[in-house]
């Protein structure tokens, strides 16, 4: 038995008419009739009897009405409790780079406001994150990609982030103002892992130019990539935020990477059918508002 049947029952009892109840509820009159028949079948007793044009409750209907009212009230009360939910886990999927160089200050600010909420951070590639959001395993994704156009997802673009070619300070590229894929022909590359969106963009650019990349090694961890670059194993394509500290210390140099591809952005995504608790709304606002204020 569905709660909606009890709600319909209450309205029929209130108006003494299937037709009037249907008008108030926005149903077709046969829908109301069918619901009341199912309710009567569930209880094994008639709930209404007709006197002329007027419906009246039977003895069974009179007995059921206060329970229906109370169940509807309790349902409304439970909704209010859920609306003010401030505990429980929130599962966030992101990539290693954003987990290390973007999210920490915003997660800290959120945890100070909601100390009883458990933030569960899972790292994966963007495609896997999006699929896990579709499947309901993740509440949110923080991704770094070209604009997300998935019709099942709501997307908040937080900011564009420049991609740079990272190299040791003595590298021959350091005098350049920008680099293209043609400049990288024959250059050993320290690549990110397969599935990384900006690695995919770089290899796509090599393919479109009819060139073959020279891969020195590949890692999923941006810190390992930077250490290999410092040791002279090759150059790497990374988001600018991942090398801010090294640039300030002078141990690495970064030159903007230019291509005809759409720019990459940090984006917060979640399923369009996802119900957001107050704490989830705060998390979204904390991340998106902070970045708007910075920009």
Q: How would you describe this protein?
A:
- The protein has 295 residues and is an alpha/beta fold.
- It has 3 domains: 3-83, Winged helix-like DNA-binding domain superfamily/Winged helix DNA-binding domain (Arc Repressor Mutant, subunit A, Orthogonal Bundle); 88-160 and 264-294, D-Maltodextrin-Binding Protein, domain 2; 163-256, D-Maltodextrin-Binding Protein, domain 2.
- It has helices at residues 3-15, 18-25, 29-43, 59-83, 96-101, 104-113, 126-134, 197-208, 222-230, 244-249, 278-294; strands at 48-51, 54-57, 88-94, 117-123, 140-145, 153-160, 163-167, 188-192, 214-219, 236-239, 253-256, 265-271.
- The protein has a 5-stranded mixed beta sheet, with helices on both faces. A 3-stranded antiparallel beta sheet has the order 10-7-11, sandwiched between helices.
- β8, α8 and β9 (214-219) form a beta-alpha-beta unit.
- 27% of the residues are buried.
- The mean pLDDT is 91.
């Amino acid at each position: 038995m569905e709660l909606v049947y009890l709600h319909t029952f209450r309205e029929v009892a209130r108006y003494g008419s299937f037709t009037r109840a249907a008008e108030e509820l926005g149903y077709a009159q046969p829908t109301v009739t069918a619901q009341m028949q199912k309710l009567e079948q569930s209880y094994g007793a008639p709930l209404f009897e007709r006197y002329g044009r007027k419906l009246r409750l039977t003895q069974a209907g009179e007995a059921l009405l206060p329970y229906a009212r109370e169940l509807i009230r309790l349902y409304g009360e439970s909704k209010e409790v859920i609306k003010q939910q401030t505990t429980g886990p929130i599962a966030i999927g992101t990539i290693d780079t954003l987990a290390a160089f973007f999210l920490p200050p915003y997660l800290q600010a959120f945890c100070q406001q909601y100390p009883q909420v458990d933030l569960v951070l899972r790292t994966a590639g963007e495609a896997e994150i999006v699929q896990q959001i579709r499947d309901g395993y993740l509440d949110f994704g923080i991704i770094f990609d070209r604009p997300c156009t998935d019709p099942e997802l709501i997307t908040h673009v937080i900011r564009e982030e420049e991609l740079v070619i990272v190299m040791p300070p003595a590298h021959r590229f350091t005098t350049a103002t920008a680099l293209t894929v043609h400049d990288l022909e024959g250059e050993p590359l320290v690549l990110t892992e397969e599935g990384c969106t900006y690695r995919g963009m770089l290899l796509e650019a090599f393919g479109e130019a009819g060139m073959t990349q020279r891969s020195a090694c590949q890692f999923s961890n941006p810190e390992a990539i930077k250490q290999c670059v410092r040791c002279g194993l090759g150059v790497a394509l990374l988001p600018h935020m991942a090398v801010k500290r090294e640039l300030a210390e002078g141990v690495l140099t970064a030159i903007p990477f230019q291509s005809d591809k759409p720019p990459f952005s940090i984006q917060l995504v979640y399923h369009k059918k996802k119900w957001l608790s107050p704490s989830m709304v705060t998390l979204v606002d904390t991340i998106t508002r902070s970045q708007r204020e910075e920009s």
